[in-house]
Design a protein that fits this description.
This is Alg9 family protein mannosyltransferase. This protein is mainly alpha-helical. The protein contains 22 helices and 5 strands. It has 2 domains: about 375 residues, no CATH class; about 110 residues, no CATH class. Helix content is about 60%, strand content about 5%.
Amino acid sequence: MKTEAATRDGRWLVLGVLALAILLRIQAWAPFDISHADELMQYLEQANRLATGHGLLPWESRAGVRNSLIPQILSMPLWLGHRLAPGTLAGMYLARATFLTLTLVALPAAWRLGTFVSRRHAIVALFVVAAWWESVFFSELLLSESLASAVLLLAASLLLDSSASRRMLLAGGFLAGFGVLVRLQYAPFAAVLVLNALWRSPERWRPVVAGGLGAAILGAASDMVAGKVPYAWIFINFSKNIVEGKAAGFGTSPAWQYFVEYYLHFGAAALLFVLICAAAAGRRYWPLLLAAAVNVAVHSLIAHKEYRFVWVSTLVILVVAAVGSQNLADGILTRRYPRLRESMAAVLLVTAVWGLLSISSFRVTGGYQAFRGGGAIPKLAVKAAQDPHVCRLAVVDEFYAHVVPAQLPRPVPLSVTPKGVYDRTAPLPPDLARAANALIASERPLGTEAYRRVACLAMPQERACLYVRHGPCSSAPYYDFQTALERSGM
């Protein structure tokens, strides 16, 4: 009877954790805020371009340094939104929601990895991926790292399963390959997982390799549909970012930068707790920790560093630490309260500790607002587009990365002001003032006396305002958004 009751309690607890995962992501939903410009330029805008036939082309798309998998996936909900509700933001919302849903594969991945020990460990691992604030945060970001990390975690849960069937190994090989297609730089992480699976059981190589070949065929088909030579983007990426040093142009950091980033993103107490718990997970999880360490080491050798580049390592460490925390709790309970060891009450206690630590880390680090923002700018752009009299919208240079056509309810030509307009050291060029009858800036720029301020929205460090003038729009090709991107090499 106790076993049946515990099973029922466990089921309700799992359902509660899944509901919590969804509620936290709804609460954190901020489709206009971004953490990186790639979310808009590389993915949402390219998907919109596939769905509508027009849009901006940043330097990565012009040079062909990435494949088109994510834009192709997101183009479907964008196309559907445009067809079902033209003149609205339905397509953009559907695309964002679709991507967030795809990242939720990290939840069953965490569960499976926890079941390597027990259902109790699985519930704690599931809870950590569902509720840890950065797990919620990254699921909201439209980045290749977010999707690839979730997919590779699921691949790991299959490849590291000693009882995995041939079909599961086939799926694991496919997911590992797909994760690398989504984020090429995670290839070292995937390689450690695959090599470990094959090293321990050489007879597994057939289904794993077959699954990987399936992903490779999908990648080649994606390239051909995009009109590209299959996998040419890999060589172009290496040439541009490594040989020519294009990526380093966006900033460089010392080799130890990721250790600093972990401190900034966790806080001292949370980071120490996670590392101690990860060490207590046991030998079964060493391959995962090795893959995470290799990924951090490889990225530490690259001059240009961003925390998102090692998110797959962070996600893995969180899951392994979740398992280790239950191990530590089991050890304590076995010595002092042996009857509680197998109970759901012990699991609830461990998840409560994780929940409190997540809240503490959120507050210490600043949470979502410290790592994303700018939503005021596209919201004002939407307001401008909803005015039928607005025929061209200009955005000051410092705000341009926050607005793309994919975010607008109707096609509105976009222009970018030259430098100096934002900080009022130069006036708005007269030909641009004639070309655009709407402008988004902070304080009123010089030379905009004909514009009236319509609305302002606050941001953490400043505010963004929409200015509109009466009258038609003319042409000013020099300031067109696409021209400005090409002129700046962006």
